[in-house]
Design brief:
Layout (H helix, E strand, L loop, with lengths): L1 E4 L7 H9 L5 E7 L8 E4 L6 E6 L4 E4 L10 E7 L4 E7 L2 E2 L2 E2 L1 H10 L1 H5 L3 E6 L16 H10 L2 E3 H6 L11 E2 L7 E2 L2 E6 L6 E6 L2 H4 L8 E5 L1
Parallel strand pairs: 1-2, 7-10
Antiparallel strand pairs: 1-16, 2-4, 3-4, 5-6, 6-7, 8-9, 10-14, 11-14, 12-13, 15-16
Helix pairs in contact: 2-4
């Protein structure tokens, strides 16, 4: 199973989707994606048809939106995934909208849905727009490091950090280059998976700036699970 998080930085889809398909995703969470039609294996959320949150799955997979006990942040959506494997996917594009300031909105979603997250294997995948270097800009209990600890208490770990043996804040590869500038790198895209799944990780890769900058300011994060 190949899980991919890639903020595609807008359209056109005729240019973006072919390059995404070269990564052969089973499940891809694609923030900033132009509107796509809903189908059994596609999902799109947004108010602006030029830029929303898309989830794309392979032909043998099915996606179904799941109701939540709280009003969710605008671009956080749980989806029941069925197919070769069943799990709850939390597609995430952390936003600064309606009081949900990036990581604080993700905290709110996790706090309000802990029972749902714990009800079955859950995967949080997408553009979190957060990193421990910005902890000082948020309340102590609502910063990135606190989110990592909160997800760990729910049995979830970052696939990149678990596989590479890296601590948060000490990533060797960025997933985002502000203004596509190689001198402004950040690691802000994540795949949080159930801790037991970390033993199934075959490879975690992040696209190279030289190859992907012409398509987006984000590099695709790919997690391969046996």
């Amino acid at each position: 199973m190949r899980l991919i998080a890639w903020n595609c930085c807008g359209g056109p889809l005729t240019r973006k989707l072919p390059v995404l398909r070269t990564l052969r995703p089973d499940i891809a969470v694609v923030p900033e994606c132009p509107e796509i039609p809903h189908s059994p294996n596609t999902y799109w959320l947004g108010s602006n048809p030029r830029k929303g949150l898309a989830v794309l799955a392979g032909p043998e997979w099915r996606l179904k939106p799941v109701a939540t006990p709280i009003l969710m942040p605008d671009y956080v959506q749980p989806l029941q995934v069925t197919g070769p494997e069943s799990f709850l996917l939390w597609a995430i594009w952390a936003h600064n909208h309606n009081g949900d300031r990036y990581v604080r909105g993700t905290h709110r979603a996790v706090d309000g849905c802990q029972g749902l997250i714990a009800s079955q294997p859950s995967v949080l995948l997408g553009d979190f727009n957060s990193h421990s270097i910005w902890d000082r800009n948020n309340p102590k209990l609502l910063c990135h490091s606190a989110l990592v600890e909160k997800l760990h208490s729910l049995g979830l770990v970052s696939a990149y950090h678990a596989h590479r043996g890296r601590a948060h804040g000490h990533e060797a590869q960025p997933t985002f280059f502000e203004y596509r500038d190689k001198k402004r790198p950040y690691h802000i895209d994540y795949a949080f998976i159930p801790a037991p799944w970390s033993r199934r990780i075959g490879r975690v890769t992040i696209g190279r700036h030289s190859s992907w900058r012409r398509f987006s300011d984000h590099m695709p994060l790919t997690v391969e699970l046996s």
